[in-house]
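New to this. Explain the following:
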Amino acid sequence: MSTAAEVTAATNAVITVIDPPLPHAAEGPLAGVRVGLKDSIDTAGVRTTCGSAYFADRVPDVDAEVVSRLTAAGAQVVAKLNLSEFALGLTGSNSAAGPTRNPWDAARVPGGSSSGSAVAVAAGLVDLALGTDTGGSVRVPAAACGVTGLRPGVSVVPDAGTFPVSELVDTVGPIARDVPLVARAFAVLAGRPVREPEPAPPVRIGVPESWSHPLDPGVATVVAAAAQVFAEGGTELVPVRVPGMGSALDVLYTLVYADVADLHVERLAHPDLFQPETLTRVRVGEGLSDGHRAEALEARAEFQRALEEVFASVDVLLTPTLPVDVPAVATDEDVLALTRRLALLTAPWSLHAGPTLALPVGRHPVSGMPVGAQLTAPVGGEHALLDAGAWFQQRTTWHTATPPCSVG
């Protein structure tokens, strides 16, 4: 255990400390909660960099809508947090502010793109953080850092004042150590009455009966044990087939990279200012045509129709968050290949319009790193996920574990 300053320096999770906190209500459902914001979320009068040299001196005039909702609920916004540049990437390494480091093991990636958000929560620098999730950018770092993160349904939380990646699939989501705080934050962000979770196991959980790519054996063992926790509570585990799951990543990346290329077309006049990993992704998008995007949109619609049929027989789906152990920072693997590996099991639920909850469910039997699982519900199913997650966390302690590099 260390001081906040020591942990901040060791993890590089914070880009800007806000002291005193942003003006906030004295009372409310988030009164006293210390909040950090992914630095792609606007704060009036406070630099918002998107982790990029392009925005090194950018200071917005107006708070993002989600920031206004948090401060009106009493939250103390105390930090802007590191991220993969322009919220592109799942390793947390490509930021103009330097790479974020995993508090469990600095030699392993923290996940991204909301790397600083998950690290700051895990390390105790904040109680709650906001991230954004396009292809897994809340869920991947939550899994790699052993915390809880919610990808709400598309358009459930307002994104005004949040720098986009692909507005078709972007979401803003809360990250905290446990489900009850995630649930409170979600209600505030979505503009709904605050509702404490009503812990209850789902009646039927769908578990995919096959995978398009092999799972790491340690991950498979840990997530199977998590499924048994639900089974012992009376949940029926139902083998399911999710049509299109194997091709979901290609469909998602076609949509996302096409949008990214359009978004950054003017910045490509100065490619030297991009982080190399970011520029690689933008260049991929340049090669995609309107026809490619149209085909991907149709494939997305087909996937959603198939998923509706799956949800006719189960309440939620359970999958690992990452198909692999948390990878090392130093790797010779091509950046796009590594990103594809990390996104294999988060990408399908980014094509889905409904919510996904990422939970810590154990430790890898070889590395000791956190292992995460995802619960995915039909459109409008946030409450069902939060109830199920709260029930699971009443019976397990994985969410209470603190990493070696944390505030004492």
